[in-house]
Automatic annotation (TrEMBL):
PANTHER family: PUROMYCIN-SENSITIVE AMINOPEPTIDASE. Its cofactor is Zn(2+). Keywords: Aminopeptidase, Hydrolase, Metal-binding, Metalloprotease, Protease, Zinc. It comes from Rheinheimera lutimaris. It comes from the Bacteria. This is Aminopeptidase N. The gene is pepN. The keyword Protease applies.
Length: 855
């Protein structure tokens, strides 16, 4: 199979300056006419256009039709050998959107035509130079039956619209900004449309349009307002203004990922647009705002300045995730946003580094590009950008970003170009920092302190070591910003930034008159595993006293990691919990922090995945037993303060904002513990469920009862399924709950849901709701020792591979790290992977992962 390497990059032999596309839409026979202006950039080279799953109808050069022996055609390309230096190429193709179940290229989503071109989907629409460094100006004509398709949308500005004599609507679009074909989009359908206006900082009027399923208009309001907030924020924070007269967002039900930043015409998974109190949780609201922001921020970081090749993906994704995280932090609670980001790094990203798909944020080798839209490229990529900001300061970073965008506007560039701009704007040497782009793996940072009273000097010893990864045996020392805080007995505090550049370094802090407690890696200032030997007492002291909420939460996480390890080593859970912990937790419940959500986080144990990443071989049963034991114990010891806290928190009509969401979070945490306390909690759970006026509280009652009160859960989930049987997005929540049932009945539950009228193997949201929940949020049943859990996932991946390989390849992830488990589980997982590997005609998507995992 055709693996590509980053080092093999060659500039294109031809460029395409303009393209005129005409779509005559039809469910099974859409005709696409493409008229391109090409210029040669390399003497003598043939023109090799990418194309897949297309029926070629005709090819013409400068208006003259070519006969079949004047070009070469195979499953992947159309090649023309003798060509002038500058010419017009006309290619006419036909394709079938209705049978396109891969949801890449042009496909039918229900009744709606829509496109997804990133990374390499445009080649399923027409023969083209499908690579991000070929930037063209697009003119698009869409023709479809007028009655059925009131809206025919594409990028840029609408030039004209009319209905022809045959009753077809004909709409023409022009995008004045040259763009790579992955940013092309087309949508045709019937919708409810919401509109808004946004006046940019320089006074230009932009019309905002949000398209949703008919009848769902009210559920689009939050997303539309979030868009306005994002537009204003980017002006205020980075002085970046929108550049077209119209910005459209369309929500569709069938979509492979969250959303897509097509120029002027974002296409969204409806899950990340539609919300109201009854159907969306606080988390859904949060995600909508953040993804609306993310796609909008791409207009500059991704669209105006794009990637030279797909190995540079983090150039736009890491940077844009960082930008959306900063936006979310400014809209809500910076501490909570950071805690959630850190959790993701410590679970999914650390796992990726420790598994067979380990890669640097700028990958070196790729078979299927869609496999590299990873938590490493995105979220570790964002951590790398965050470290830059820490090292350069907010102003330095902003200056670097401004220089980068101004220098490269309209270009397709590399991560090196980005770093160069940062360096030029700040006069800082970033050569060692650049290693973050080429080195994979999770660095381990070992720290210790030594205090010398006579000289009033604090010595801090730091050493870093990155263990080998499957893709890269040898590692170098990285540039690490280590933010610390010193906590003194008299209550005073000091902050320092230690910048590590070598494997081992000593930092001397003078004039320290008493020995402080050191808070390491405040705000998770670098994406590393901290190895610090801090005892229980000091961890609890940090949890109570550090200035940074993230560091306080982190101290509790470290505390619990120690406790879980002690329990796994054979200690009884009652014996390892100090009394000080219980009283500290009780006092947080009695007098919560101003930020109630932080209180909830301080009172939460690390989840299974976070703990699993701390072991070479994951002690599945040990972790599960320890977590259950500690939670049960806390529930009993803290029952009174939990109940009081729960009852004291006022109930008010649902509204999504930071404070109200935080209050619900803490209430739900109390409910979770209370459900576990020995006293029967049925009534409390029932009442929480019945009195909920919003989905957040409804889900809290369901989730809490599922973990502790199975009989209550079965009653409530039946009611829930009945009540929401017609709402696909809510049924996804139901599917996910059913699939996370820790009891064996989960298999019957999944079977029942597969027969639900709303379930479809063709809809990624439905499939993911069931099977991501099962394989990623149900360790009890997924990791069963009889292999039934692994077999369930294996079957689904095998079945989906022929329908939608991209989704299949995403689902397979939990099986890939089979080497991290005990021999019995290893053998079962490996056998499941082996059977998948043997499927004839396996897609590149699944093949690449299975193959890396087995070799
Ligand atoms: N750029 C798209 C992701 C495309 C994924 C292709 N498999 C969404 C985003 O990151 O904004
Ligand atoms: Zn993105």
């Amino acid at each position: 199979r055709n693996v590509k390497s980053r080092h093999d990059y060659q500039p294109p032999a031809f460029i395409i300056s303009t393209v005129k596309l005409c779509f005559e839409l039809d469910n099974t026979a859409t005709k696409v006419t493409s008229v391109m202006q090409l210029q040669r950039r390399q003497a003598g080279a043939p023109l090799k256009l990418d194309g897949q799953h297309l029926q070629l109808l005709s090819v013409a050069v400068n208006g003259k039709q070519l006969s079949e022996h004047e070009y070469r055609l195979d499953d992947e390309s159309l090649t023309l050998d003798t060509l002038p230096d500058s010419f017009e190429l006309t290619v006419v193709t036909q394709l079938s959107p209705q049978t396109n179940t891969a949801l890449e290229g042009l496909y039918l989503a229900g009744q709606t035509f829509c496109t997804q071109c990133e990374a390499e989907g445009f080649r399923r629409i027409s023969y083209f130079l499908d690579r991000p460094d070929v930037l063209a100006e697009y003119f698009v004509t869409i023709i479809a039956p007028a009655e059925q398709y009131p809206f025919l949308l594409s990028n840029g500005n609408k030039l004209s619209e009319h209905i022809d004599s045959a009753g077809n609507r004909v709409v023409q679009w022009h995008d004045p900004f040259a763009k790579p074909c992955y940013l092309f989009a087309l949508v045709a359908g019937d919708f409810d449309r919401l509109t808004e206006r946004f006046v940019t900082q320089s006074g230009r009027d932009v019309s905002l349009e949000l398209y949703v399923d008919k009848g769902a208009a009210a559920k689009g309001e939050f997303a539309l307002q979030a868009l306005k907030r994002a537009m204003r924020w980017d002006e205020q924070r980075f002085n970046l203004e929108y550049d077209l007269d119209i910005y459209m967002v369309v929500a569709v039900d069938f979509f492979n990922m969250g959303a897509m930043e097509n120029k002027g015409l974002n296409i969204f998974n409806s899950k990340y647009v539609l919300a109201d109190a009854g159907t969306a949780t606080d988390k859904d609201y949060f995600n909508i705002e953040s993804i609306i922001g993310h796609e909008y921020f791409h207009n500059w970081t991704g669209n105006r300045v794009t990637c030279r090749d797909w190995f540079q993906l983090s150039l736009k994704e890491g940077l844009t995730v960082f930008r959306d995280q900063e936006f979310s932090a400014d809209m809500g609670s910076p501490t909570l946003c950071r805690i959630d980001a850190v959790k993701l790094i410590r679970t999914a990203q650390f796992a990726e580094d420790a598994g067979p798909m380990a890669h640097p944020i700028r990958p070196e080798q790729v078979l299927e590009m869609n496999n590299f839209y990873t938590v490493t490229v995105y979220d570790k990529g964002a951590e790398v950008i965050r470290m830059l900001q820490t090292l350069l300061g907010r102003n330095g970073f902003a200056a670097g970003l401004a220089l980068y965008l101004q220098r490269h506007d309209g270009q397709a560039v590399t991560c090196d170009d980005f770093l160069q701009a940062m360096q030029d704007a700040t006069a800082k040497d970033l050569s060692r920092f650049a290693l973050w782009y080429s080195q994979s793996g999770t660095p381990e940072l070992a720290v210790s302190q030594h205090y010398d009273a006579p000289s009033a000097q604090l010595t801090l010893n730091l050493s870093q070591h990155t263990p080998a990864t499957t893709d890269q045996p040898i590692k170098q020392a990285l540039m690490l910003p280590v933010q610390i805080e010193l906590l003194f007995a008299d209550g005073t505090k000091q902050q320092h930034l230690l910048v590590m550049q070598e494997a081992s370094q000593q930092f001397l802090l003078p004039e320290i008159h008493t020995e402080p407690v050191v808070v390491w890696l405040e705000h998770f200032s670098a994406p590393v595993k901290l190895k610090a030997d801090i005892d229980d007492r000091h961890l609890l002291f940090i949890a109570g006293n550090a200035s940074d909420g993230v560091a306080r939460w982190d101290a509790m996480q470290q505390f619990w990691s120690r406790k879980v390890a002690q329990a796994i080593a054979g200690n009884a859970v009652e014996d390892v919990l100090p009394e000080a912990l219980v009283s500290m937790m009780a006092s947080w419940l009695q007098q919560p922090e101003p930020d109630l959500a932080l209180t909830a986080e301080l009172l939460s144990l690390p989840d299974f995945d976070t703990l699993a990443e701390q072991y070479q071989q994951v002690p599945v049963d040990g972790i599960l037993a320890a977590l259950a034991g500690f939670k049960q114990l806390l529930a009993m010891r803290l029952r009174e303060p939990l109940l009081q806290c729960y009852q004291r928190l006022p109930l008010s009509a649902y509204h999504y904002d930071q404070a109200a969401a935080a209050q619900r979070r803490l209430r739900s945490l109390c409910l979770h513990y209370l459900a576990l306390s020995a006293v029967d909690a049925t009534e409390l759970l029932q009442q929480h469920y019945q009195s909920a006026d919003n989905m957040t509280d409804t889900m809290a009652a369901l989730a809490a009862s599922q973990q502790a009160q199975p009989a209550t859960f079965n009653l409530l989930i039946d009611d829930f399924a009945q009540r929401w049987q017609h709402d696909a997005l809510v049924m996804d929540k139901c599917f996910a709950l059913v699939a996370s049932d820790p009891a064996e009945q989960v298999f019957d539950g999944i079977e029942t849901m597969l027969r639900h009228p709303l379930f479809s193997w063709h809809n990624p949201n439905r499939v993911r709701a069931l099977y991501s929940a099962f394989s990623m949020r149900n360790p009890q049943q997924f990791h069963r020792l009889d292999g039934k859990g692994y077999a369930a996932l294996e079957q689904v991946v095998g079945k989906l591979d022929g329908i939608n390989a991209q989704v299949a390849a995403r689902l397979i992830t939990p099986l890939l790290s089979w080497r991290r488990f005990d021999p019995v589980r290893q053998q079962l997982m490996q056998a499941a992977l082996q059977r998948l590997a043997n499927i004839p005609g396996l897609s590149n998507d699944v093949y690449e992962k299975v193959n890396r995992s087995l070799t």
